[in-house]
Amino acid sequence: MSDFSARAIILRRIDHGDYDLIVTLMTKEYGKLSLIAKNAKKSIKRFSGVLELFSALDIIGKKGRGKLPILMEASLVQPYTGIRCDILKTAYASYFAEVVNIWVEEGKPQKSLYSLLEYVFHLLDQNALSGEELSIIFQMRFLALSGLSPNLVECGKCRTTLEQFDDNRIYIDFSKGGILCQNCITSIQEKRLLSAGTVKQLLWVNNSDLKKAERIRFTPHAIMEGLDFLEKFVFFQMGKEPRSLKFLRNIRMTI
Ligand SMILES: [Zn+2]
């Protein structure tokens, strides 16, 4: 048996029996980990309300004989209460957390992905950027870190570069992984369209460092097109629709 410590963000928490919780964390040091928090439901004192969704914690875990390591101690680093008090922010944070939870394997360190999650939660909490803008940044950077980026630079069939396209409407074919030029379109009905301006803004988000990316001001049109495209592309890449996406779309429509 051995103890370990980590900085972590809570992605998910589920009940386990009458007294325990299982928390799934994205840790800075070890990637995604699920731990069992014994008596977390029974005793209020045990973790004194720190095991809330999206919170950043310092934890101490213990690898035992059971399947899951045991959460021994957890202290709050950032509660991100600004997220949990706002339903739209909660909907975005739930989506980011679920995408990471679906895609990331347990126990595989991914420091950059941890930093991305911490970065978007921090800015969401602080109102520094809107949920929509952060969602575009999160999804573009998440896809890049996971090796799933859409090809927005050149036609997926003939390799003509975006600058050489003569139409402002850019066709997207998910099965080809990105954009297609007009000559390579076979069935227009099945293709999605993005304007060249949106494609350029998405590329800019990907090619700048995060500090610069947060200075971008998307046009309302780019936000609408970009979100629609990215949410569908992430869904396509994951092979399943994140449950939180339905919730997010409902909330977005009613606010
Ligand atoms: Zn082409």
Return the string of H and E elements. EEEHEEHHHHEEEHHHH
User: If strands are numbered along the chain, what order do they take across the biggest sheet?
Assistant: 3-2-1-4-5
List segments where confidence is low: pLDDT < 50 over at least 5 consecutive residues: none
| Domains, number | 2
**Which descriptor suits the 3D outline?**
elongated
Kindly provide the name of the CATH class of the largest domain.
Answer: Mainly Alpha
Give the number of helices.
Answer: 9
Largest sheet, strands/sense/barrel = 5 strands, antiparallel
Bound molecules: zinc ion
Ends: how far apart?
A: 50 Å
CATH architecture of the largest domain: Up-down Bundle
- The fourth-level CATH homologous superfamily of the largest domain is Recombination protein O, C-terminal domain
Radius of gyration in whole Å, from Cα?
20 Å
Average pLDDT rating? 92
Structural class: alpha+beta
By DSSP, the count of extended strands is 8
Helical residues, percent: 40-55%
β-strand percent reads: 15-25%
Written overview of the protein:
- The N and C termini lie far apart (50 Å).
- This protein is elongated.
- The longest helix is centred in the last third of the chain and has 19 residues, at 220-238.
- Helix 3 (87-103) packs antiparallel against helix 4 (111-125) and helix 5 (131-145) crosses helix 8.
- The strands form 2 sheets. A 5-stranded antiparallel beta sheet has the order 3-2-1-4-5. Strands 7-6-8 form a 3-stranded antiparallel beta sheet.
- It is 40% helix and 23% strand.
- The protein has 255 residues and is an alpha+beta fold.
- Bound molecules: zinc ion (ZN).
